[in-house]
Amino acid sequence: MNWIEQALKRLKTEMAVVVTVQATQGSVPRGPGTRMVVFAQGEWGTIGGGHLEFQALAHARLLLTGQTQQTDLRQVLGPSLGQCCGGAVDLSFERVSAADVQRLRTQLMPPQTPLALFGGGHVGKALVQTLASLPFAVRWIDSRDEIFPVDVPAGVDCEHSNPVQAAVADLASGSRVLIMSFSHAEDLDIVVACLKRLRERDDLPFVGLIGSQTKWATFRHRLEDRGFAAEEIARITCPIGVPGIAGKEPEVIAVAVAAQLLQLL
């Protein structure tokens, strides 16, 4: 999302052209609705790279300088462009200025899915950095107020909650939940709060808990002791992350978890 804000900031002082993929046919690098913002020098975003984008950039700059008035272009991704995708892309070109900033913010920003991240430790910090450029509205929650860094990415909402599980009650409906607090006791309290909410409202599509199979076996027994049925406990995903990634470094875990969330969108 950061490139959008950077482009809009620059647009306040420079003219630009917004290039939009309007329609596609066959195999193409990006789908309809994909946009990039082209300035006289430099651009933000991408419509898929390659010669398709090279031609689009050239046409946008012709429009910027008044050397053409053509605002649509059809590109066939065959031998003439040196790309073997085999499809076709219809592009539109729109000159924009500072007066269009607010409208473009709405158009360029993709729909964002609410996500609650419980835990400000090393993996939590890595995850926030990874998720900041993805279509998630992140609510970062910890019982320790001093845990959040000063350089939190734009759009991430930091929240101190003590007890930490109290924050589960007012999560946005449809929130994805990731649980990775500094203690297993807090993790369990958050899991219990999520399961109770699922009983009442059934509006948390994904609840993921960081941990090993051993940790999860212990949690299952404790949840059973608290009266949760097997089908309720099965709503919790543990371990988290796409399978096949064995690295334990925070950044590696963050990529694996972000990939899993994207798969489930």
CATH superfamily of the largest domain: NAD(P)-binding Rossmann-like Domain
Could you tell me the number of beta strands?
A: 11
Kindly report how far apart the N and C termini lie: 17 Å
Order of helices and strands: HEEEHEEHEHEEEHEHHEH
The tally of helices reads 8
Beta-strand content estimate: 15-25%
Q: What's the shape?
A: elongated
How would you describe this structure in keywords?
35% helix, alpha/beta, six-stranded parallel beta sheet, 2 domains, single chain
Write up this protein.
- This protein folds into two domains: 2-108, no CATH class; 113-264, Rossmann fold (3-Layer(aba) Sandwich).
- Helix content is 35%, strand content 22%.
- It has helices at residues 2-11, 50-64, 101-108, 122-131, 184-200, 213-225, 230-233, 250-264, and strands at 16-25, 35-38, 43-45, 72-76, 88-96, 113-118, 136-142, 157-160, 176-179, 206-209, 236-237.
- The strands form two sheets. The chain has a six-stranded parallel β-sheet, sandwiched between helices.
- The model has no long low-confidence stretch (mean pLDDT 93).
Detail the topology: elements first, then pairings.
Elements: H1 2-11, E1 16-25, E2 35-38, E3 43-45, H2 50-64, E4 72-76, E5 88-96, H3 101-108, E6 113-118, H4 122-131, E7 136-142, E8 157-160, E9 176-179, H5 184-200, E10 206-209, H6 213-225, H7 230-233, E11 236-237, H8 250-264
Parallel strand pairs: 6-7, 6-9, 7-8, 9-10, 10-11
Antiparallel strand pairs: 1-2, 1-5, 2-3, 4-5
Helix pairs in contact: 1-3, 4-8
